[in-house]
Amino acid sequence: MTRNAGTGGRRDWSRSVIYQVYPRSFSDSNGDGIGDLRGLTSRLDYLSALGVDIVWICPVYASPNRDNGYDISDYRAIHPDFGTMADFDAMLAAMHARGMRLMMDLVVNHTSDAHAWFEAAKSSRDDPHHDFYIWADAAQGCAPNNWEAAFGGSAWTWNAATREYYLHLFSHHQPDLNWDNPRVRAEVYALMRFWLDKGVDGFRMDVVTLIAKPRDASGRLPDAPRTRAGDLQPAFDLVSNCPRLLDYLGEMKREVLDHYDVVTVGEAPGISPERARLLTDARHGPLDMLFQFDHVDIDTQPGRSKWHLRAFSVDALRDSLSHWQAALADHGWNSLYFNNHDQPRAVSRFGDDVRWRDRSAKMLGLLLHGMKGTPFVYQGEELGMRNAQFSDIRQCRDVESLNFYHDAIERQGWNVQQALHAIRAKGRDNARTPMRWNCAANAGFSAGVPWMEVPPDDPDVNAETEMADPDSVFHFYRRLIALRRTCLALVEGRYELLLPDHPDVFAYARRHAGADLLVLCNMCGREVAFAWSAPAVVLLANTDRTRLPDQGDLVLEPYEAVLAVQVREPVERAAAA
Ligand code: GLC
Ligand code: CA
Q1: What is the DSSP letter of 27?
Q2: Residue 557 near ligand 1, beta carbon < 6 Å
Q3: pLDDT at 570 exceeding the cut of 80
């Protein structure tokens, strides 16, 4: 393994930006309306031009697609929608030929209910696979505890053949695996080795902090604390903090990860910073980084499901991100993300996607990429793609939105407009509309009928147009990605909050021997002015600013974002490419 001295003992990925592809919506090579591996392979030059060198792809395994591939029925097979194993091998070779690494999605908290293990497990209590899943008897005729599934309803479903319930933290088509069973763990390690031996370079581990389930003294899975009646209670906080998680991930590290040169990121709903530090400590932690959720919950009413909206404030975002920067400052490592396939588009959420789409998209990019950690870019983010304007539930595909819509209207007294409003703001389908490649039909995504509509507006938001425009969001992201390679302060510098009480400006420094970087982001659509006395040279801005004043008032334009270097001693060369 190549340890890189300049990055605090971390390997060379710490200077990389990771690009996430949602294959179903990326590029369709055969006109069936579904993005596929050949389509993805044909776009690798685009990713090279952007400058990313690690690509994470969402699941492409065999799956009934109840949750778009996060319900896997065969961990060693490619779903025919995406192509063949030969297509996969060709894609991996093409990535490696370009010096790119591939991260696969590892979904092992649960399988599909169509997986052969579950088919066998549910047939009889005596089946050898029965103990691959989590079962419990009814409690006085009811579900074994109060846990609710993330996609609605109880987390327990009755299985008539064995007269007991099985656990599923997501939909009832996604039964949870029993990680207390050593045979389950051995199967998971074997399938990880299968992909690593093919040359895969790492894993993004789906809800991996939920794999170990807490049990009380009598071996029962305990009730979760109730919040408010009628709200989801997926018990994520309770489960994410189960002590045995550390044992299982430690074992995975010894059995598998230590034997390969891999980069890993674990999805970690409900994780505390203390635990995240333990898990990602470069000295002995099992994982490289985690996706925490605090900052993407700030526009949700506390303790309620994501559909209960609340306006976001700069203050809440600053508190949340700064808290994580501080918590993992010396040990542990942050992932940095606003967008992924589960989140609405950040430019619509924290920017202004109507008047200031271009500028606020760049501002959010700089705000995030300026921090310490590994930035993730989700397909289309680098173009400033925004939320779809769903006006009819038939435009949506996601199990989470569909379940919510029907439940909200049929059981919780919401009307159609209220439910659609929440889906427009928070629905995962916003992230899953097809990638925009050019001005052709379906934005160049497919020659057929796309599995999800391409929103008709924004014809100029596309890869071809933006690559030809040096001022585009694309080129701004390209510069951000290049800077991380050349500017050590961006990788290593100590995070220090500036203007901690400003209502609209999110500003911080990255202190490093030789150079201090300053990041100033106006997060509102008005000019803001404040006193300033730190002369600095601008490295990158989303306006034509080149300097910060020595003395006096600094006026930032609406959504202006500036990365500047305050020179104290001779600095390493940190110019944008
Ligand atoms: C993760 C995935 C999400 C999926 C869920 C269940 O949160 O990112 O897309 O629905 O896990 O696997
Ligand atoms: Ca296709």
Answers
A1: -
A2: no
A3: no
CA end-to-end span of the chain? 29
Residue 445 lies inside a defined structural domain of this protein: yes
DSSP structure class, residue 330: S
Name the domain boundary from 145, 167, 189.
Answer: 167
Q: Is 207 in the pocket of ligand 1 (CB under 6 A)?
A: yes
107 lines ligand 1 (CB under 6 A): yes
Residues 205, 221 within the same domain: yes
Which residues are part of the catalytic machinery? Answer: 206, 267
List, for residues 380-410, the tens digit of each pLDDT value.
999 999 999 999 999 999 999 999 999 999 9
Please, which residues have CB less than 5 A from ligand 2, an ion?
28, 30, 32, 34, 36
Q: Which domain holds residue 417?
A: 389-429
Number of domains in the chain: 4
- The pLDDT tens digits of the residues spanning 10-62 come to 568 999 999 999 999 999 999 999 999 999 999 999 999 999 999 999 999 99
Whole-angstrom CA distances from 309 to 304, 425, 432, 433 are 9, 8, 21, 22
Q: Please indicate, yes or no, if residue 2 is contained in any of the structural domains.
A: no
Sign of CA dihedral 164, 270, 206, 128: negative
Half-sphere exposure of 573 (CA within 13 A, CB side): 4
34 CA → ligand 2 middle, Å: 4
Starting at the edge strand found earlier in the chain, the sheet holding 101-106 runs: 289-291, 263-267, 202-205, 101-106, 54-57, 18-21, 374-378, 335-336
CA dihedral 359, 425, 204, 53 (to 10 degrees): -20
Please indicate, yes or no, whether residues 200 and 266 belong to a single structural domain of this protein.
yes
